[in-house]
């Protein structure tokens, strides 16, 4: 069985359950229905395993690891309820977006056992336990911790390889997120050492029969192209790895953004527009 038509399998972050998002989850799903989506994946961020990994806005609000865990439990209760209530209008897949900071693997195992998500999006936002995509300043801190921008890329793709191999996420999220604050990323990903790690990671994704996220959030920020960049998309296409759009939305106004653009891009490049149904794979 496959899925077709407008779809996002990475996004649906809401202000109810994510401090850097807006609006209610029900309103976001109603927006997808209004836009003609027959299916959507909702993938809230997992709670942190330690106070070290709280975002600045969460610290400012006085939030704790325990509060974040309880809020995540409320998220799963809410998405399951909406899944049932809206079943005649839209097929909702209840997922979660993983992290890859210190201690993440037993934490993800526990969350999967506790909440039984329909599928996982596997993401890397941290290198050297620094959330490099949070701001240009944290990106520079990660660069300093690694030694250079090139070394940040190498460390990122090594951590991503470990995450993919251990977590076996159905969707590999924003594959080249490490480029976020690098104006020279198009040339950087062609550096022989970096390209070798990209190839290695793509080969693992292919071997495990995973799906990749055509992450459209950069287009919402008026950037030139989605994640991954064109040269990596061509490598993915040559391996015949499925790619599925993800709006990575953080509110009603972003829900479904640029999905049709993403589907046209995939069609132009010769990707299959029938996508596997999300499922939960066994974690190592």
From TrEMBL:
Catalytic activity field: L-histidinol phosphate + H2O = L-histidinol + phosphate
Family per record: Belongs to the PHP hydrolase family. HisK subfamily.
Name assigned to this protein: Histidinol-phosphatase
Organism the protein comes from: Desulfotignum phosphitoxidans DSM 13687
UniProt record, GO biological process: L-histidine biosynthetic process
Enzyme's top EC category: hydrolase
InterPro entries attached to this UniProt entry: Histidinol_P_phosphatase_HisJ, PHP_dom, Pol/histidinol_Pase-like
Gene3D superfamilies the UniProt entry points to: Metal-dependent hydrolases (3.20.20.140)
Pfam families to which the protein is assigned, alphabetical: PHP
CDD domains the record matches: PHP_HisPPase_Hisj_like
EC number(s) given by UniProt: 3.1.3.15
């Amino acid at each position: 069985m496959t899925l077709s038509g407008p779809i996002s399998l990475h996004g649906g972050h809401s202000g109810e359950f994510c401090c850097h998002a807006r609006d209610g989850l029900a309103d976001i799903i109603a927006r997808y229905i209004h836009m003609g989506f027959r299916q959507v994946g909702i993938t809230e961020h997992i709670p942190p395993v330690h106070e070290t990994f709280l975002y600045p806005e969460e610290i400012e609000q006085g939030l704790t690891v325990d509060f974040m865990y309880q809020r995540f439990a409320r998220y799963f209760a809410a998405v399951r309820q909406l899944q049932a209530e809206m079943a005649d209008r839209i097929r909702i897949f209840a997922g979660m977006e993983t992290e890859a900071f210190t201690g993440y693997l037993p934490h993800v195992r526990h969350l999967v056992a506790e909440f039984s998500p329909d599928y996982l999006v596997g993401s890397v936002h941290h290198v050297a336990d620094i959330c490099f995509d949070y701001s240009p300043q944290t990106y520079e801190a990660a660069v300093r911790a690694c030694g250079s921008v090139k070394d940040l890329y190498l460390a990122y793709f090594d951590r991503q390889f470990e995450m993919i191999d251990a977590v076996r996420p159905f969707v590999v999220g924003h594959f080249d997120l490490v480029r976020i604050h690098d104006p020279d990323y198009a040339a950087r990903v062609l550096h022989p050492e970096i390209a070798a790690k990209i190839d290695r990671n793509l080969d693992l994704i292919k071997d495990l029969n995973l799906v990749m996220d055509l992450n459209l959030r950069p287009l919402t920020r008026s950037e030139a192209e989605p994640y991954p960049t064109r040269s990596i998309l061509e490598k993915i296409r040559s391996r015949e790895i499925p790619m599925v759009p993800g709006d990575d939305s953080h509110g009603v106004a972003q829900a479904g953004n640029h999905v049709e653009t993403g589907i046209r891009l995939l069609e132009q490049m010769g990707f299959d527009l029938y996508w596997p149904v999300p499922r939960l794979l066994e974690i190592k």
